[in-house]
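Hi Y.,

Following your request, here is the sequence exactly as I used it, all 76 residues.
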Amino acid sequence: MYNPDRVIRQFGLKQRIPPLTNTSKELHKIDLRGKTDKDWSAEHSDYVSMWTERASNIANDELLEELIGFYDSYMV
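Below is the corresponding structure, written out as tokens. Let me know if you'd prefer a different format.
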């Protein structure tokens, strides 16, 4: 999943401290190839809904007016 809140500066917006994201190595070990006993449309219906509503979830925040200083809370 793409997390624009982690790269919001690329869009000219002020970077805030993003919430923690699960980056567990266990997630990368999941291999479901060959598994046919799940209804994947039901399994991923939340993500399909988020994709369908993507136009209503556009990154919008305070514009970046100046460079981030060394002691800005994001940099610390």
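The mean pLDDT is 79.

Thanks again,
Q.
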